[in-house]
């Protein structure tokens, strides 16, 4: 340590830099492995290379490689010449020296990893020097801000400061009562206003094919976009955004909102930190990862291995939750009916590692164009603990809580538009979810009786009067009216002041 600084020379490893560059020119097959550690390195001011010439050579190698050519010293020298940088890098002799001086190309990834690690150590030293200078000037708040800014920047790319995660957490705000626990405030709202997703937490919506996972995910996106937030949708099974955009439009999201706040990605290659950092700026309130198993396979992670789930979480999920986004992964259930609902397909760690909720959809009526589909919504995990009290415990499966029904009505009979609703379960109803169909039938009979009684008394049977007389909750009344209209038991007519009137047509057999 000196009087005017903490260190005489920042950490660096020129041998690792030279070996990395030489290996890239000697064997192009190692370049993807090197790139995974170092990325583009196009910014001379933020490069991982200590020697500026090495950054120029690396950038030239990647330029040749990206054009589909083998980046040997001759082509790299030509690229540097075009950029006006050949003389600044030592010329062709230096390139050939790198090419011939590699101990072994099989260690190229390790050389690159050393370069990246030394760069992070250099960043720590630079941070320490700035903090030291600020502290010497008595600028304590400035020194603290240096630490906060740098840590936030590292977390945005999934990297925390070395040792930062092992520092004791400040418990003061919790003990003083200043800390607010996250409440479920993200995504699709139930008919009573309840939402199932927590900000800054990881969630999964799972179900068999055609159970409504895409509708649940897209409706959650629509809710966030309409509320003025940004949304990121990463679809690992479909690169074409047409269907997703069409659903957002159908759900009432305006085109300019989609263009300004919605980002859709359909990747066919593994993610890199700089890609994700760009997608997370500005920070979205919701990130949807559609096709979790395909995503894990794309990144070389086995869905049935615990290490695979953990690595996938570190790579794709934690950078998103670090910026405050609720992450919603769409996953499949196991095929074994006895184990369905216990967790998503693959390693149990996929479900056990969730920090938010695990949503299960079980289809009751198929979804489709021109149809009315319905799925029952359950919660099988709720780590923060806010949701189960607003649902009904399943008496047959411990840990499974019925939260309501997701209904997508595209018949256009009652309304001129597609109607999506997430209905809350009936209050004080202790029947099992499996008995809902018989309960629906009873509700239908009760509501139809109310309509007949109102008509017989010379009164108007509109939604307000039927709700008031039915003796059941408004959501259940509305659901019954929808079913009665679809099944042809009532006729729906426009009334005064934009009201809707109901006329009985036939008895329920």
The CATH superfamily of the largest domain is P-loop containing nucleotide triphosphate hydrolases
Low-confidence stretches: 1-7, 336-341, 345-349, 433-437
The CATH topology of the largest domain is: Rossmann fold
Q: What's the story with the biggest beta sheet?
A: 10 strands, mixed
- Range of strand content: 15-25%
Mean pLDDT: 81
Shape, per Cα inertia axes:
elongated
Structural class: alpha/beta
- CATH architecture classification name of the largest domain: 3-Layer(aba) Sandwich
How many distinct folded domains? 3
Number of strands: 14
Offer a concise description of the structure:
InterPro entries: DNA_heli_DnaB-like_N_sf, DNA_helicase_DnaB-like_N, DNA_helicase_N/primase_C, P-loop_NTPase. The protein is α/β, with parallel strands linked by helices and 509 residues long. It contains 18 helices and 14 strands.
List the helices and strands and how they pair.
Blueprint: H1 14-26, H2 31-38, H3 52-66, H4 73-82, H5 91-100, H6 108-136, H7 140-156, H8 172-176, E1 186-189, E2 195-197, E3 202-207, H9 213-226, E4 231-235, H10 242-250, H11 255-261, E5 262-265, H12 273-279, E6 286-290, H13 292-298, H14 306-322, E7 326-331, H15 349-352, E8 357-365, E9 372-382, E10 392-393, E11 401-409, E12 419-423, H16 436-456, H17 463-470, H18 474-486, E13 490-494, E14 500-504
Parallel strand pairs: 3-7, 3-8, 4-5, 4-6, 6-7
Antiparallel strand pairs: 1-2, 8-9, 9-11, 10-11, 11-12, 13-14
Helix pairs in contact: 1-3, 1-5, 1-6, 2-6, 3-4, 4-5, 6-7, 16-17, 16-18
């Amino acid at each position: 340590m000196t009087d005017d600084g903490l260190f005489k020379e920042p950490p660096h490893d020129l041998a690792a830099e030279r070996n990395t560059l030489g290996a890239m020119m000697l064997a192009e097959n190692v370049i993807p492995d090197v790139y995974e550690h170092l990325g583009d390195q196009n910014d001379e001011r933020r490069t991982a290379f200590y020697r500026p010439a090495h950054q120029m050579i690396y950038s030239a190698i990647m330029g040749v490689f990206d054009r589909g050519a083998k980046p040997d010293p001759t082509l790299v020298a030509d690229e540097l010449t075009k950029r006006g940088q050949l003389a600044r890098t030592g010329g062709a002799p230096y390139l050939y020296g790198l090419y011939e001086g590699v101990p072994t190309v099989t260690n190229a990834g390790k050389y690159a990893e050393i370069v990246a690690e030394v760069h992070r150590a250099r960043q720590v030293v630079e941070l320490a020097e700035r903090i030291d200078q600020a502290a010497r000037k008595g600028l304590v708040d400035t020194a603290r801000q240096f630490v906060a800014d740098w840590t936030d920047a590292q977390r945005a790319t999934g990297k925390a400061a070395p040792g930062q995660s092992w520092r004791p957490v400040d418990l003061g705000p919790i003990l003083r009562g200043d800390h607010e626990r996250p409440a479920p405030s993200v995504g699709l709202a139930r008919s009573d206003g309840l939402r199932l997703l927590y900000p800054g937490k990881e969630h999964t919506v799972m179900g068999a094919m055609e159970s409504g996972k895409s509708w649940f995910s897209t409706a959650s996106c629509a809710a966030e976009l309409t509320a003025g937030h940004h949304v990121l949708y990463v679809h690992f099974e479909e690169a074409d955004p047409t269907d997703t955009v069409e659903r957002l439009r159908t759900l009432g999201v305006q085109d300019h909102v989609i263009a300004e706040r919605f980002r859709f990605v359909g990747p066919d290659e593994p993610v890199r930190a700089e890609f994700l950092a760009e997608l997370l700026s500005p920070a979205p309130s919701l990130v949807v990862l559609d096709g979790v198993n395909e995503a894990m396979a794309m990144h070389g992670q086995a869905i049935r291995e615990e290490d695979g789930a953990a690595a996938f979480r570190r790579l794709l999920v934690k950078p998103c939750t670090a910026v405050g986004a609720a992450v919603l992964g769409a996953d499949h259930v196991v095929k074994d009916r006895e184990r369905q609902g216990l967790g998503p397909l693959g390693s149990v760690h996929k479900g056990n590692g969730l920090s938010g909720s695990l949503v299960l959809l079980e289809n009751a009526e198929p979804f489709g164009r021109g149809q009315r589909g319905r799925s029952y919504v359950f919660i099988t995990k709720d780590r923060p603990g806010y949701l189960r009290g607003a649902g009904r415990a399943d008496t047959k499966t411990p840990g499974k809580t019925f939260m309501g029904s997701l209904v997508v009505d595209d018949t256009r009979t009652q309304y001129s538009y597609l109607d999506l609703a997430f209905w809350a379960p009936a209050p004080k109803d202790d029947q099992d979810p499996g008995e809902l169909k018989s309960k629906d039938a009873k509700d239908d009979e009760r509501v139809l009786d109310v309509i007949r009684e109102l008509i017989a008394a010379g009164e108007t049977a509109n939604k307000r009067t039927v709700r008031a007389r039915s003796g059941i909750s408004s959501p259940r009344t509305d659901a019954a009216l929808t079913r009665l209209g679809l099944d042809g038991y009532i006729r729906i007519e426009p009334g005064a002041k934009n009201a809707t009137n109901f006329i009985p047509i036939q008895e329920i057999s």
